[in-house]
Amino acid sequence: MIITVSASELIGMKASIPLIDVRSPLEFEQGHIPGAVNIPLFSDQERAEVGTRYQQAGREAAFLIGLDFVGAKMSGFVKKIDVLCRGKEKELAIYCWRGGMRSASMAWLFSSAGYKVNLLNGGYKSYRAWIRAEAGKGAPMIVLGGMTGAGKTLILNSLRSMGEQVIDLEHLACNKGSVFGYLGQAPQPTNEQFENNLFDDWMELDSTKPVWLEDESRSIGAVGLPGPFFDQMKISPMLLLNVPAELRVERLVKEYAGFDKALLGDALIKIAQPLGGLAYMKAAAAIEEARFEEAIELVLEYYDKTYRKALDKFKDRTIIEVETVTSDAVLNARLVLNEKLKILT
Asked: Does the pLDDT value for residue 322 go beyond 70?
């Protein structure tokens, strides 16, 4: 049996049945629905050959060469599905790029093997259009603001342990947001996959309760927030935590002083121009001589100035400033949590 389902319907069922992406490995690597298993109908080379044959000789010729590639693999496809579904109901969901011949062919095969197949209408392309349209809808946002080094990520983690809903954008992006933010992080996902992962986390939220997010620019390293999601963030109420500069410097020294000086110097070059020639040379020399506190103080002057400009740009929103004299994440989480009701009423 083959049933056509929408993107929203597929998202609701993918936790309970296997989700199969039949596109080529390179397509899958570029971006896929979280939780999907790649069982490609064609290898990357085969897909390229089918496309070339289509351009040169038309649809029928491309179809025939596709059959040549797939014929010997069909039993292997079914065996893979049997392993995935072992001990479960014989049901799965499947998609390709546009919901065309690739997914239709595999759906026919798995249906013939006795499986109930849920086929994504419009394919991965329709899923991508749907998540971008739905980005940021539902749960109300509370944005946690603060200058670089305020410890916002640790505060969000503490809020999560206190039962609050949290989405850690920097964790999803594998980047802490500054030019130094890639240090110690896993490679960033593609922008496409970042959006997919963000939406997957968003769909797990209770839409009747607020969700905490860290204040971010549109770009986090090499990836960017979806436009509708970013726009919603920038009109949502903010709790702005003011942490003394000396505490922020102390935190950043602990966080970054252990990295190789060459890596720190390479990152610093990226902001040499906005930092200014003299400040850049002083900061570079301080890093080389392991005077990390001085280097960070110089860099913070730039980041603090940049952050204030960003606040001015999006100031037409509720902003409540919260003063603190500590860098303790748990205590600061309690401080901002105490202000939560003020911005929700």
From this structure: yes
167-177 average pLDDT score: 94
**Residue 251 carries which side chain, given as an amino acid letter?**
R
Single pTM value for the model:
0.91
Q: How far apart are CA 143 and CA 200, in angstroms?
A: 19
Rounded distance between C-alpha atoms, residue 2 and residue 35, angstroms: 21
Q: What is the DSSP code string of 170-216?
A: HHHHTS-SSTTTTTT-PPPPPHHHHHHHHHHHHHTS-TTS-EEEE--
In this structure, how many other beta carbons lie within 10 angstroms of the beta carbon of residue 2? 14
Instruction: Give percent of the chain above pLDDT 90.
Output: 69
Task: Yes or no: say if 184 and 235 are a contact pair by the CB < 8 Å rule.
Answer: no
- In the predicted model, what is the mean pLDDT of residues 34-38? 96
- The residues assigned a catalytic role are 96
Per DSSP, the chain holds a count of helices (H) and strands (E) of 18, 12
Q: How many angstroms separate the CA atoms of 342 and 261, rounded?
A: 44
Backbone phi and psi for residue 214, each to the nearest 5 degrees, phi listed first:
-80, 140
Q: What distance in Å separates the CA atoms of residue 126 and residue 312, rounded to the nearest whole number?
A: 37
If phi > 0 it is left, if psi is from -120 to 50 it is alpha, else beta; for residue 344 that is alpha
Residue pair 8/128 in contact (Cβ under 8 Å)? The answer is: no
Residue type, 264: L
